[in-house]
Write a structure and sequence with these properties.
The chain is an alpha/beta fold. The chain folds into three domains: 47 residues, 434 Repressor (Amino-terminal Domain) (Orthogonal Bundle); 129 residues, Response regulator (Rossmann fold); 128 residues, Response regulator (Rossmann fold, 3-Layer(aba) Sandwich). The strands form two sheets. A six-stranded parallel beta sheet has the order 2-1-3-4-5-11, sandwiched between helices. It has a six-stranded mixed beta sheet with strand order 7-6-8-9-10-12, sandwiched between helices.
Length: 331
Amino acid sequence: MAVTLNDIAKRVGLAKTTVSTVLNNRSAQVGIADETQKKIHKAAMDLGYRPSFSARSLARGKTLSLGFICGDINNPAVSELASLGMEEAEKRGNHLMISVTKWDYQREMDCLNTLLERRVDGVMITSAALQPGVPQYEHIIRDEFPVVVLDEHCPDTLSSVKNDWMTGMAQAVRLLKSKGHTRIGFLGKENPDKKLYSKLSAFLSVCPQEKVDFCELECSIDIESACRMGRELADRADRPTAVIAYSDYIATGLMLGLHEKGLSIPRDMAVIGIDGTDMGKYLLPPLTSIAVDRRKVVVQAIEMLLEMIDKKKIITKKVYLPTSLVVRAST
């Protein structure tokens, strides 16, 4: 026989409503003491309680599931976002369904279709594909379906959480300038739309302000392409003396390519990543990076989704989170 909330309530000598509040992750909203929460969770574990997902969904008129559409889970910044997303969603009594698209617009829209078919309550997406005229965009607006776009260009009608790369980029360029670097490269996507590419836009704005010569370097945004670029740069007499890479992931490949050709970092070339992933601190040398607080990104996005889900309408918000330079040995 399945264990019920009443069974747990009898075991701990508390009201069923208190037990329900704790097991549905709503304790913070009503101020239930930590000791009481621990007591209830222990009783639930001892009795072998398993919550009924379908019953909770029917009771609330929701599936209690959220979607997360992302480009490449191999990128540490994306995998950290996904991990934090699962953690923060579960804290709020929701499941997170993750779809990986390899940065392909059509796959992004196919994944969105799949998540909509599975009746998730809302979606976070790291893509600029949702634009007026796209069928999925029109569906979202018509049905007021909750969507939050993460750090990508999106219409004013959609909510977003973006990173202010200007602040951290200015700190990065000034650091390199103070160390005597007069020509700085930016290694990023091939054929980027510069109007939509916020990291590159920040770089192109800051360098002239700081009166620093700069150049653009392009490669596919995978680690092997970045490694090839490192080897190519090592053989160039006109190479910049410092490079800011599109991501910590790309910076890792760049550093490996330079190392394979016998260059020393930062003696022969300084390298700065972007994203501030945990991985960066374990590289040799540890990577200087323009960092953002990914937990804040996820918390902001999920809270925005849940507000829209509760109110059953789109609430347009634009949140900008600061970035800052984490200085390590690669500069």
